[in-house]
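Handout, section B. The chain below has 463 residues.
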Amino acid sequence: MIKFDLAVIGSGPGGYVAAIRAAQRGLNTVIIEKEHIGGICLNWGCIPTKAIIRSVNVLRDIASAEELGIEVSGFHANMQKIIARSRGAADRLTKGVSFLFKKHKVSVIEGYARLEGASKIKIDKSDRSVETIEATHIIIASGARSKALPHIPIDGKDVISSREALELDKLPASMAVMGAGAIGVEFAYIYKHLGVDITIIEALDSLLPNEDSEISKELHKQFKKQKIKALISTKVVKIKKENDGITLNLSGPKGESELKVDMLLSAVGVVPNSEDLGLETVGVRTERGFIEINKNQETNVKGIYAIGDVAGTPCLAHKASKEGLIAIDHIQGKDVEPLNKNFIPGCTYCEPQVASVGMREQYALENDIDYEISKVQYRVIGKAVATGRIDGFMKFVIDAKTKNILGAHCIGSEATELIAELTLALTQEMTVHELAETIHAHPTLSELVMETAENALGEAIHV
C-alpha cells in the first residue's frame, strides 16, 4: 500500500492549489479526481462562463459601434464557435494544471475516493480497478453541484442546469431563469444578448439578493434597459411540459400567474458533494451536508481537513483556494491566520459588473453601527466618459468614528477588477484618508476609488 504525506480529494481551485502548495513545501502529495482536472470552476463554471461573456460583450460592442464612429454590417453570433472557444479556454487551463502537477511531482489518481479510516482511502479507479492508499493528512475538496428543487427536476433538456447552459449551441426562442444569484444573472445576461427572450424569476425581493440593496436596485434598472424581464418575490409553484414548451405556474405579489417558455434554467444554488465519501465511517461531522471545520479547516477528526464548497458558503473559487493554503499551513505547524469571511470579495460578471466586499449597509443599519455612506457615480470619472461606460456607482460603508472602510460595493464597468484594491483596504484596516491620499493614475477607472474616498471627507473634486 502506497503511503503519502497528503492526499487531496478533488482537483478544483481548492484542491489543486492545496496540492501544489504542499508539494512546493516538500510533502509527498497525491490528488484524487473522479471526473475532470480543475473541477467545476475550470471546466463547467467560472472559466467557460467568462469566455462566453467575452463573446457576448464583443457582440454588444459591435452592435453599438456606430456610437464610436465605426460602421459595421453583416455580423452575427455563431453559437457553435462561441461554445467551442469557451471549451478551448477550459481545456487550456486544465492542461495547465496537469502540467503544474507534473512540475511539482504531485501524483494524480483518476477515480472515486472514499475514506476507510482517518488515514486510509479506497479509490475506485477510472480503469475499474481498485486501489487503497494511506495518507498522514487528508484534505476533502469535493466541491458542490447544482441544486434541483424537488418539484422541478433537472432533465438536461427542457429544464437545464448551468452545466447544460454552457453547451447550448442551439438557442431556444425563450427561456426562464429560476434564481437571481450570480449564476442566474450571468446566464440571463448571456442569453438575452444572444437573442433569447429572457425572464428571471427570484423568490426573494431583489436581483442578487446577497448584495447591497442599492446595488441590486441599480442592476434591476440596468437589466430593464436591456429588456431583461425580472419577476421578484415570485416562486415557481409547478411546471407542465408540453409539446411546444413549458408552462410555469407562478406565485407572486399579484397572485397566481402562468408563463410559457421554451426552456427553464434552474440556478437556485448548489448542494455539497459530501455523500458517499465515507465520512460516517470515520465520524466526520456535517451540517446540512456541509462538512464542519474549525478555524484551521480541520474537521472534528484529527488529520482530516475540508476546504471549498463542501466546507460551507460562500461557494467561491477564491475562497476555496485560500482555505487550501490555510490547511497546508496548519498541517506544517505554521501560524495560521484564519479565514475572515468579511474579507472575501464577491463578483458577478454581467454588464454592468457587480463586485463587493465587507459590510452591507443593511447590516450596519440593523446592528446599530455608527456608519456613514459615500457614493460616487461612474459618470464623473474621465476614463468612464472616454470609453462610454458611465452607468453605475461605487459605494463605501464607513465607520463614522475611525473612518475605516467597513464595506465597499460597486456596479459598473470593470467592477470585478476594482474590488481588489478595496479588499486590500479592508484587510489592512485602511481609512478613507489613506485611500484618498493614494495617487491613482489618470485616466483610469480606479480613480473612482480615490474619488469615493475623497467624497467621504467632503473633498471630492469631481462630484
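Note. The first strand starts at residue 3 and ends at 9. Compare this with the example in section A.
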